[in-house]
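Inputs:
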Amino acid sequence: MLEFKKQISEALAGLTGMEPGAVAEHLEVPPEREMGEYAFPCFVLARHLKKPPPRIAEELASQIAAGGLLGEARPVGPYLNFYVNRAGLASRLLPEILREGGHHGYTNEGEGRTAVIDYSAPNIAKPFGVGHLRSTVIGNALYRIFEALGFRAVGINHLGDWGTQFGKLIAAYRRWGDSSRLKEAPVEYLYQLYVQFHREAEEDASLEEEGRFWFRKLEEGEKEATALWEQFRELSLQEFQRIYDLLGVRFDAYQGESFYNRQLEDVVRLAREKGLARESEGAVVADLEPYGLPPCLLQKKDGATLYITRDLAAAIYRYRTYRFDRLLYVVGAEQSLHFQQLFKMLEVLGFPWADSCIHVPFGLIRFKEGRMSTRLGRVILLEEVLERAVELAHEIIREKNPALEDKEKAARAVGYGAVIFGDLVNDRQKDIEFDWEKVLDFSGETAPYVQYSHARICSILRKAGLNPGSFPPADPPPVDPGPDPGGELLQDEEEGQLLVTLARFREQLQRSAADCRPSYLARYLIELARDFNKFYHNCPVLHAEEKTRGQRLLLCEGVRTVLQNGLYLLGVEAPDRM
RNA sequence: GCGCCUGUAGCUCAGCUGGAUAGAGCGUCUGACUACGGAUCAGAAGGCCGGGGGUUCAAAUCCUCCCGGGCGCACCA
C-alpha cells in the first residue's frame, strides 16, 4: 500500500509540479470504500491554478495512465480518487507475506538504533494490581513494535524498591512480623503489614518517626535493615516474575531505584557545580522557575534522596550504558509534571540527549467511587482478573467446542488476550473505569473476536490439507499464484476489500510506533478480522472453483499471518483452535 | 489559584497529519443459504461531535473563552 501511495504521489507530482512528498501528505483515505483507496483533494491546487477544484480533478484524471499498482483515477467532485490495481496488489503482496511469514510487516527503519523502554515498574512489597497492567502491557507492546521496526529494544523494569515506605515496612515487620506467614504469601503479608502500619500510625504518631529511622538505617547500609529489605525484595520479585511469565512479558534489565544509590551523590554534586541547585531550608533544591516549572527537590533536609534524583541518575546511567536513540517512560499521566522537570533538568545539566527522553503517559484505572489506592486497601489484583477471565473462557469453550483437546491452553490464550487487548484497544491517554462486566465481556471489539477469526482461518486451511503457521520463508508457497494471481479476486467486493485492508498492516504498525500508541494496531486488527468475516460469509473457499479456491486460500493464509503477527506485537497469542 | 489530560449515539469508544452524507461495539428490534466453527454475518432504530466566539475554500479535528470530569503543583513515588 505504501508502494501504491508512492506511485500516486509521483504521478501527480509529474502533472502538478508539486513535490512527491507534498502530494503524499495531502493524500487521504476516503470515507467510503467505494471511493477508492486514496484520494487527492484538489482544493490545494485551486488557488494556484485559478480553476475550480472539480475541474482540476477531471483534468488530472484524464492525464493519469493506469499502470503498475495504479488502477483507475476517478474524479468525484473536488476529489480525485485512486483505485489500486487489485490483481497487481495481490500478486505482489500475497507471495511476499508467504515469504516473510512471521516477519511480515517488519522493517529495518530503526537501523539498529536503540530504544530503551522503561515499563511496568511495580512497587516491591505491594500487590500487583490492575493499575500496573497498563504500563506493563503498553510497554511490552511498544518493545515488540520497536523491535519489529529494526530497533534494538531494551526493556527496563524500574522497580519501586527504595524509599521511605521501606523504613515503615521494616519497622512494621520488626514489631509484628512473622517469618512463616511471610514465606507463605510474601506480598500479601507484606501488604497487610503496610496497611496495618498506616492504620496504627493514625493513633500513634511515633510510628512515622520509627519508619523514618529505619529508612535512614537502610540508607546507611545497616545490617539488619538491609537483610530484611533484601528478603522483601527477593520474595516480591519472585511473585512478579510469575505474573510476567503468565503474560509473556520480558525485561532485559531489572534495575530498580535502589540500583542508583551510589550514583546519587554525583548527581547532586553535578547539579551544584552547574549552579542549578542550591541549599534551601536545609534541603538541596534546583530552581526551575525560569522555565515555568516548580522547583525540583534533589535532597531532603535529613539527607535522604528523592525519586527525581534517582531518575536523573537512571537517565544518565542509561545513556552511558545503552547510547539510546530514544528513551521511553511508560508511566502514568499523573507523573507528567515530574517528567517535565526531569527532562528540563537533564537539558539544563547539559546533556544533549535530553530531548530523546519521552514520557509515554496513560490514564488511570479507577473505580466508580474514585481512584485505586494500595494504602487504603482499594485494589483489584491482576491475578484475580486473569484467573476469572481464563475461567470464563474455559466455560465458553466447554460450551461451544466440547471436542477441543487442550481446553486449558486455549482458555489461557483467550482469557489473557481479552484482558491485554482490552487495555490496549483504547487510547492510552484516557482513564479507564474498572468494571468486571466489561473486563469479562468477550464479544464485539475484543481479542477473542480477532483470535476467533484466526482460528477459523486455521480450520479452513487444515481442511484444505495445508498446515497453518508452518510456512517458513524458505518453503515454496503452498498454492501457486499462477500467471495472473488475484485476477479472480476482483470478482467479489469482499475479497478486494480484505486484500486492501491486509495491505495496510505495515503503515498501521509504523503509525503505532511513531505515536507510541499500540491502540492503532489493535484497531487495525479488529478491522482486518471484520473484513475477513465478511469475506468468509460471502465467498466460499473450499467449495470454490479450483483457480479461485487456490487464490482464496492464499488470501486466507495472508490474513492469518497478519493476524498472528499483529497479535504477537500486542503480546497476545493466536491459538489455532479455540 | 496555576498547569496537564479529557468531554462524540442509551452505554463503552473509533475517527490517521483539518477535507466528501460523523463510524464501530454493547444493548434494543428484525433477519441469515441443511457449504468452509453461528464466539459469525446482514438490516433497522439511535448524534445541535459539552457550549459560545474565531481562523479556513473546508473544523469533531487548529486558536480562544466558558462549563463538566480526571490528575498534578518543594522534603511520597
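The longest helix of chain A spans residues 223-247. Flag for discussion at group meeting.
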